[in-house]
């Protein structure tokens, strides 16, 4: 089914998806953009569309309105745009707005009877373009996921409210950006010591374990072995310093292990250190420690 799409924001994200949607036979009925220069005019023309400086009645032409603005502007843009949508249209927010702003925008949409979808782009557009996986949450999530999947984007609708998709994206970022930082710090050290190839060999066992199983095993064993591992972290830190390297990430790792160690020592002193061996129970024990710091 050919869709009429209104696009708000035609930067890297908006332009990328607009090209894919037009190639798929859909129509961009208008593009809302603060930029009205010749370059942006040409970009709109390349999508067979025209520019609008602000939200207005032109949005009523669309079956789906897609916001691809900067995250800090997403809520205000939604407030301006939503009153112009038809009741049978959908609003999809592809921005990096906070979960709170997503929920606030969804509340405005609900008051107007418009389905709202929080769409989290789960990767780098620069690498995968419109084939970057999408996570959709909110009242319009199934329909938006079906539409984007039909255009070639791996899309998944999840249970939950608007804001949950961006929350999951940011939780994923904690793990991926943390792994990225540790990889940089570790491999720089390995390279400087002439040990990078050998390091890959001793890491090969990790390739045989699914990632979620691997991280769950960390959580379960962390609560028991943090004191011993803290000593190892400190030895690793000293090795980096001796090599003339600055252990930025490892400093944070040391603080986390020290926090858990202090919690274990306090619980043992109180005679209350008895945590069942499950991920849920051990996360429940660790959470108050995180809140105290």
Automatic annotation (TrEMBL):
InterPro entries according to UniProt: 6-PGluconate_DH-like_C_sf, 6PGD_dom2, 6PGDH_NADP-bd, NAD(P)-bd_dom_sf, Pgluconate_DH_NAD-bd_C
UniProt domain 6-phosphogluconate dehydrogenase NADP-binding: residue ranges: 4-126
Single Gene Ontology MF annotation: NADP binding
Pfam families: DUF1932, NAD_binding_2
Annotated ranges, domain Phosphogluconate dehydrogenase NAD-binding putative C-terminal: 190-259
Protein name per UniProt: 6-phosphogluconate dehydrogenase NADP-binding domain-containing protein
Native species: Achromobacter kerstersii
């Amino acid at each position: 089914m050919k869709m009429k799409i209104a696009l708000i924001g035609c930067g890297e994200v908006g332009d990328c998806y607009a090209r894919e949607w037009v190639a798929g036979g859909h129509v961009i009925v208008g593009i809302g953009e603060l930029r009205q220069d010749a370059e942006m005019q040409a970009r709109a023309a390349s999508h067979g569309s025209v520019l609008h400086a602000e939200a207005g009645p032109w949005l009523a032409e669309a079956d789906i309105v897609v916001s691809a603005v900067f995250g800090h502007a997403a809520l205000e843009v939604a407030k301006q745009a939503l009153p112009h949508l038809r009741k049978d249209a959908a609003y999809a927010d592809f921005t990096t707005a906070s979960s709170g702003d997503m929920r606030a925008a969804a509340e405005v949409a609900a008051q107007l009877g418009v389905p709202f979808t929080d769409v989290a782009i789960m990767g780098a557009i620069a690498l995968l373009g419109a084939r970057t996986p999408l996570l959709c949450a909110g009242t319009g999530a199934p329909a938006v996921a079906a539409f984007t999947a039909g255009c070639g984007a791996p899309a998944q609708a999840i249970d939950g409210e608007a804001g949950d998709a961006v929350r999951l994206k940011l939780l994923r970022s904690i793990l991926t950006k943390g792994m990225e930082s540790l990889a940089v710090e570790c491999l720089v050290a390995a390279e400087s010591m002439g040990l990078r190839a050998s390091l890959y060999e001793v890491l090969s066992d990790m390739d045989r374990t699914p990632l979620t199983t691997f991280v769950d095993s960390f959580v379960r064993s962390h609560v028991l072995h943090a004191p011993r591992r803290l000593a190892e972290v400190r030895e690793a830190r000293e090795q980096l310093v001796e090599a003339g390297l600055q252990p930025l990430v490892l400093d944070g790792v040391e603080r986390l292990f020290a926090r858990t160690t202090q919690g274990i020592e306090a619980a043992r002193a109180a005679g209350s250190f008895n945590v069942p061996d499950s991920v849920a129970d051990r996360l429940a024990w660790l959470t108050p420690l995180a809140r105290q710091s």
